[in-house]
């Protein structure tokens, strides 16, 4: 108990010294050793015993994580490290590596300023390494590299000393190539990784040793000694002479920025308000005396304290009892009940917490992940978080006992709040509850937690694939009439170009941008000037332009028009699936002069039916989700690996051999990947290593379309007959 108490005292002493704080994330592909590494860093900082490090998995506090041996939730911990006679506070987030939990990585990157990228020395960089690096650079988070499992290279692969150095050099080159390709400016500004400079460390998280060029001068341990001791299996001496925690945390303190240095750069990337305003200056300077500005990156539920919002505090000081506003809640205030920090699974309460820290607070009942929390009512919110993958699988959930139904609805809303990559649809009419997630594992974990943690017995359907609808050509003008025939709306539709869709996904075009800035980006993206200045709304990857001129009463009716448009997008005409990549132009409107005849009951159905009929006229088609697949197998199993991709309507687009193994890369539709894990194991006698990653949506082949649409309509209880445009325009 005293060890923990002492640590808490040291942590709280350093909280208000931002120049001595480092906020870091540990990121990597699955099974490259992040959680074992985190354990040993905590042991080095004196938080857990060294005997248990690497086996205790302190950061995997959830029973499900321990049972499966993977990290599911990003978890936070604060610890103290001494470097050159000074103490530093390290706030660390251990993130998941499995592609299904990539959303946690995106959110963690918003909270930290530096990232330790962990790469397995044997496997090298993998697809998820690339994804996490891209997320870090997009958020302005500086990387350093730790090459793990060097002992495997020496003892399992049996390389000699020269080959070992060549292989390690190859990993550094590959990561540098990725950084340069993603952001050449940052690469040239000193973000290039260089072992000689000390931004790369090598070691074994499992055996608790590491080396880096600067630390070799202190410890005297060079690569020759590493090689000899690994061969002799004398890891203990290495761990004593060159302990992992010292090498790695020295690198973190020396090469990763403190909040004052980082915020000057990062605020310009994640916030688009006025940098000369009070809150702008305060965030850039990490000022504890400025207005409160915090970004919520995680929400969890504590059985005793209720909702706990974790987030990065960019400006101001949080104190218990303080009133704050939350973006998007129209000026409603929330009162902070407790302010604290996380030490792994435990939350330690503190009196106050100042800018530059990662805070855990209760009392923010209106906050969701991505909310901006501030003491100013009119602060421009932070840029919303962009997740790289989208939900691609759905399960239908129902309560086993009818009496649990109200509780299930509450629990599902909680689940959606805790994990924004989960999409929950509660259909009050049919009583069907749908949970959409990133993959089979993601859905398995969520439904398992509903049963275990929330105590609701549920029955789940087999997983279903999530499709999207999209137009393939132009149509219109389409006329939509209101039920009373007094109002008419004329719209034109066409698909949005891939470039524009990408700009929306990357957050380059949003309705939060100043009007002139938004107009200029649209013109650059190929829109007419007249169109660019009349963009009214963006919903997912759909755009609505109002091209009408001087129509009486349209201003007060516009909200209802957009409501009708959004309803049509929520379920397209083919299969009631979400519509995406659609551009709509409102070209003419005839409205009744009497407000009573142009209310919601008239306008919404008129617009909704015009949009749905128009989508059918514009060649409505289905988009299906695809996943990138990378399979590494011994040479003699190559045929089995390519067969597994091609036999699932997939394409192989690259093969690379390295030594006696070959890596096959391809992509295949999610609908064909059920049971892939079992099949690939049996096809390759269990010798394949593989990973999957979301690869976007593509149009369903024309020959399969009728069959797929029919199956979806049948499942949803819709008429099997596909509607025609006239059905909506009667």
Please, could you describe this protein's structure?
The chain has 730 residues and is of the alpha+beta class. Helices cover 35% and strands 27% of the residues. The protein contains 25 helices and 32 strands. Helix 2 (34-44) crosses helix 12 (244-255), helix 5 (127-138) crosses helix 7 (161-182) and helix 7 (161-182) crosses helix 8. The longest helix is centred in the first third of the chain and has 22 residues, at 161-182. It is globular, with a radius of gyration of 27 Å. The chain starts with a helix and ends with a helix. 45% of the residues are buried.
Features of the shown structure:
730 residues; 32 strands; single chain
Largest sheet: 8 strands, antiparallel
Spatial arrangement of strands, main beta sheet: 12-11-17-8-9-16-13-14
Count of distinct strands? 32
Fraction of residues in β-strands: 25-35%
Q: Can you give the mean pLDDT?
A: 84
Looking at the structure, what is the overall shape? globular
What would you report as the Rg, rounded to the nearest angstrom? 27 Å
* Derived structural class: alpha+beta
Number of helices in the DSSP assignment: 25
Distance between the termini: 75 Å
The multimeric state of the shown protein is single chain
Uncertain segments are 48-74, 97-101
Helix content: 25-40%
């Amino acid at each position: 108990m005293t060890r923990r108490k002492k640590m808490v005292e040291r942590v709280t002493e350093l909280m208000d010294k931002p120049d001595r704080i480092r906020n870091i994330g540990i990121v990597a592909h699955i099974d490259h050793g992040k959680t074992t590494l985190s354990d040993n860093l905590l042991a080095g900082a004196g938080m857990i015993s060294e005997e248990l490090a690497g086996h205790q998995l302190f950061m995997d506090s959830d029973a499900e994580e321990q049972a499966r041996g993977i990290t599911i939730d990003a978890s936070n911990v604060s610890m103290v490290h001494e470097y050159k006679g000074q103490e530093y506070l390290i706030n660390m987030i251990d993130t998941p590596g499995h592609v299904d939990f990539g959303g946690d990585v995106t959110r963690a990157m918003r909270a930290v300023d530096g990232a330790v990228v962990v790469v397995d020395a044997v496997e090298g960089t993998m697809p998820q390494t690339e994804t996490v690096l891209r997320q870090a650079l997009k958020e302005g988070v500086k990387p350093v590299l730790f090459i793990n499992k060097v002992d495997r290279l020496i003892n399992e692969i049996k390389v000699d000393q020269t080959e070992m150095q060549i292989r390690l050099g190859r990993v550094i080159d590959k990561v540098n190539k990725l950084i340069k390709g993603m952001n050449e400016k940052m690469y040239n500004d000193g973000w290039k990784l260089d072992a000689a400079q000390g931004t790369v460390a090598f070691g074994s998280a499992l055996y608790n040793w590491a080396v880096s060029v600067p630390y070799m001068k202190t410890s005297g341990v060079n690569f020759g000694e590493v090689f000899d001791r690994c061969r002799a299996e004398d890891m203990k001496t290495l761990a004593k002479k060159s302990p992992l925690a010292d090498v790695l945390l020295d690198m973190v303190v020396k090469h990763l920025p403190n909040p004052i240095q980082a915020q000057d750069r990062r605020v310009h990337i994640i916030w688009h308000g006025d940098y000369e305003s009070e809150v702008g200056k305060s965030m850039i300077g990490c000022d504890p005396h400025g207005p409160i500005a915090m970004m919520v990156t995680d929400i969890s539920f504590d059985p005793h304290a209720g909702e706990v919002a974790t987030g990065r505090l960019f400006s101001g000081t949080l104190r218990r009892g303080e009133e704050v506003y939350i973006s998007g809640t129209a000026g409603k205030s929330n009162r902070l009940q407790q302010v604290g920090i996380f030490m792994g699974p435990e939350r330690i309460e503190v009196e106050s917490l100042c800018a530059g820290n990662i805070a855990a607070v209760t009392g923010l009942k209106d906050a969701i992940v991505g909310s901006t929390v501030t003491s100013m009512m009119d602060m421009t919110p932070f840029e919303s978080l962009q997740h790289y993958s989208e939900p691609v699988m759905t399960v239908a959930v129902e309560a086993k006992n009818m009496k649990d139904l109200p509780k299930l609805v509450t629990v599902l809303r909680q689940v959606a709040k805790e994990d924004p990559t989960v999409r929950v649809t509660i259909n009050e009419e049919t009583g069907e509850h749908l949970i959409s997630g990133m993959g089979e594992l993601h859905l398995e974990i969520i439904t398992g937690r509903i049963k275990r943690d929330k105590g609701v017995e549920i029955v789940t359907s087999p997983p279903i694939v999530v499709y999207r609808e999209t137009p393939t050509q132009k149509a219109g003008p389409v006329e939509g009439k209101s039920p009373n025939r007094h109002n008419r709306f004329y719209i034109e539709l066409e698909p949005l170009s891939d470039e524009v869709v990408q700009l929306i996904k990357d957050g380059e075009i949003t309705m939060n941008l100043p009007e002139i800035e938004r107009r200029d980006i649209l013109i650059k993206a190929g829109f007419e000037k007249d169109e660019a200045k009349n963009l009214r709304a963006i919903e997912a990857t759909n755009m609505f332009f109002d091209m009408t001129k001087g129509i009486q009463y349209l201003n007060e009716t516009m909200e209802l028009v957009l409501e009708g448009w959004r309803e049509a997008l929520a379920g397209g005409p083919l299969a009631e699936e979400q519509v995406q990549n659609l551009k709509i132009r409102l070209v003419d409107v005839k409205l009744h002069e009497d407000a009573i005849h142009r209310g919601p009951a008239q306008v919404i159905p008129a617009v909704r039916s015009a949009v749905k009929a128009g989508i059918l006229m514009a060649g409505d088609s289905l988009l299906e989700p695809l996943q990138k697949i990378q399979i590494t197998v011994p040479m003699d199993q190559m045929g089995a690996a390519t067969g597994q991709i091609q036999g699932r309507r997939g394409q192989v687009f690259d093969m690379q051999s390295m030594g006696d193994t070959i890596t096959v890369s391809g992509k295949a539709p999610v609908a064909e990947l059920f049971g892939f894990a079992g099949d690939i194991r049996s096809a390759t006698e269990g010798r394949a290593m593989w990973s999957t990653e979301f690869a976007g949506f593509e149009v369903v082949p024309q020959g399969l379309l009728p069959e797929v649409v029919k199956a979806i309509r049948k499942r949803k209880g819709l008429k099997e007959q596909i509607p025609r445009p006239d059905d909506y325009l009667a």
